[in-house]
């Protein structure tokens, strides 16, 4: 008899903060750290991977 266990994506990422905001100065150096966002996901493997990206346009 053979068996296996696979992980399903049943845990949502949990962010360390409820909301994040940042101010980017006009003269910030390219590559400067502006904001650190952290989240953890209890799923294993690819289901536990958390990705971030910026969306939207410019303000002002």
In brief:
This protein is largely without helices or strands and 60 residues long.
Task: List its salient traits.
two-stranded antiparallel ribbon, elongated, little secondary structure, 60 residues, single chain, 2 strands
Describe the structure.
This protein has strands at 14-15, 39-40. With 60 residues, the chain is largely without helices or strands. A two-stranded antiparallel ribbon has the order 1-2. The mean pLDDT is 82. Its main location: membrane. InterPro entries: Cadherin-like_dom (IPR002126), Cadherin-like_sf (IPR015919), Protocadherin/Cadherin-CA (IPR050174).
Topology:
Layout: E1 14-15, E2 39-40
Antiparallel strand pairs: 1-2
Keywords: Calcium, Glycoprotein, Membrane, Transmembrane, Transmembrane helix
GO molecular function, one term: calcium ion binding
Organism: Vidua chalybeata (Village indigobird)
Number of strands: 2
Poorly predicted residue ranges: none
Q: What's the main sheet like?
A: 2 strands, antiparallel
This entry's quaternary arrangement is: single chain
Structural class: little secondary structure
Number of separate helices? 0
If strands are numbered along the chain, what order do they take across the biggest sheet? Answer: 1-2
Distance between the termini: 65 Å
Relative helix content:
under 10%
- The averaged pLDDT comes out at 82
Shape from CA axes? elongated
> Measured on Cα atoms, how large is the radius of gyration?
18 Å
The H/E string reads EE
Strand content: 5-15%
Protein name: PCD16 protein
Keywords: Calcium, Glycoprotein, Membrane, Transmembrane, Transmembrane helix
Membrane topology: Single-pass membrane protein
Main location: membrane
